[in-house]
Amino acid sequence: MHLSTRLHLLDLIRISASAESACRAADRAARKASIRRKEAAATRRQRRLALRSAPSGGAVDALADAERVYRERAADVDAAGARWRRAFTASARADARLGGELASARVLTGSDRPRAKGGRTKAETALLAELAAMPATLIEAAHAILVQSSAGKDSVVALDRVVRWAKAAGCLDKVVVVHADIGEEAEWPGVRDLAQQQAERYGLRFVVVKASVGFLGMVEKRGLWPDAQNRLCTSTLKRDEAAKLFTQIVDELGLDDQALIVNCLGIRAAESPSRRKKHELAIDHRASNGRRLVLTWHPVFHLSETDIWQEIADQTLDYHPVYDTLIPRLSCIFCILASFEVLVRAVRLCWVLGLPTPKTYVDLEQRIGHRFKNQFSLAQVVEEASRREAAEGPLIWRRGDAIRHHLGEDAAAAYLHRLALAA
Ligand code: SF4
User: Whose CA is nearest to atom 8 of ligand 1?
Assistant: First the structure.
């Protein structure tokens, strides 16, 4: 199938999904309007009875008021019903068009209409899986390629892979590295600088996005820590900020037609059960619209942690020294997803580096009266870190310990040698 047909079908899938969700929203709004009309009718009935049983000027006014509210609610029901009918028609039209075009492109056959038996999802998965297997084609087709970089190990490998493919396709100039700054007090020192250096190594444009309120400000404002089910930190501080950049990039491109933006994230299936459910390539339905089709691409999706370290060693990629203390992720200093053991290590590393972060977080935890995690508080983490510190002394590590740990002594020695030569 020609690439332009594939992208056209993906956009039709986006339109059909968006029309369906608009239809569902209109349906919810119509139901709510109908409930409010019933409530207004009940109030009107009560006031009619009240007027009959005890006529007075006040009861007349109260009934007139109830009549007015009822008329408004009834008009709302009519308007919501009309909106739902329009949304339903648009959704049915989008499905019919999609179904027809998928059938003529032989992506869907027989009774696999878009909404029947998950036909649309099936088609989306098939089209994207084939495209994910052609990274060079995907890169060539994209008008802009954004690599979201936390400066962590998975991001740096994802970036290196994208750069190698983009270089081979002769379109390195399309690649932009984006770093979401979540607040100095929440991140390990040097993270932003490292993300910049990693981008500059390839001569790439580097953009920092930052929400007006950082991680700690967000927690203070809500009076709650985020958790795995409500990862507001990721959605508000990273995803929403990156989405603003899509608009800017599309404006800069100044295209007449819809732009294809490939947004790369260094996430891996092996990291967690929820990540395993994701796909290597997906339509970002929330960020896409008529002006841009945004595809989320996970170039390291199928790699294991050892594979990642192997690529870091093989490609002599620079990584943050936090990994050498055997903290597995370069996330926030205290990540809401980290285990107790990792958090204890993070506290001890803060003490070695002279960072005030443990006290800042424990103070905040006490002030808002909400535990950092359901299972334990940060105060307990700090308590355990003090006990370990007393028993074992301060944390010690050597440069290269992360590679030593994952790939062995020889690999670490070779990596450090190459890194020194490249410096
Ligand atoms: S690293 Fe953890 S705490 Fe920080 S933004 Fe991501 S999920 Fe939230």
Answer: 233
